[in-house]
Write a structure and sequence with these properties.
The chain is α/β, with parallel strands linked by helices and 137 residues long. The chain has one domain: 3-Layer(aba) Sandwich (Trna Endonuclease, Chain: A, domain 1). It is 37% helix and 34% strand.
Length: 137
């Protein structure tokens, strides 16, 4: 499967929930270098008359070891969160992962504790249709 399949899948799912994709990719800068978060988006919050801003790093979790992929993904998430806090602190970073991978990992108590300690905000998505399943803060 094309590694960008889920990227486009999540982008469409966000749009289906009323988000506007403003960055594809969203660049973060440091020391004359840059890294790319997969997506940046905005959604108007009518009651507050302001925009909610997010950045989303999409991961497929299709490799052999879900644990290894989780370690890599959370390390990347931590680094991006640090840079995002310096560049645009009002934008919230999320890690997007397939719902089935989340379901397999979250039943392991130490994984749940690890994600909570690292303060990883998650979006889970359906792999069969462009639909978001959960927002986990």
């Amino acid at each position: 499967m094309d590694k960008y399949f889920y990227h486009h899948h999540v982008s469409k799912a966000l749009e289906n929930e009323g988000w506007t994709i403003t960055h594809d990719p969203y660049y973060l800068y440091f020391s004359e270098k840059r890294v790319m978060v997969d997506l940046g988006g905005e959604k108007l919050i009518v009651a507050k008359k302001e925009k909610e801003k997010i950045a989303v790093e999409v991961k497929s979790f299709t490799g052999i070891s879900l644990i290894h992929q989780l370690h890599q993904s959370v390390g990347q998430f931590d680094f991006y969160a640090l840079l995002l806090n310096k560049q645009e602190p009002e934008r919230v970073l999320y890690l997007a992962m397939p719902q089935d991978a989340y379901d397999e990992l979250i039943v392991i108590p130490v994984i749940k504790e690890f994600l909570e300690r690292r303060q990883v905000k998650l979006i889970t998505f359906d792999i069969n249709e462009p639909k978001l399943k959960q927002w986990i803060k």
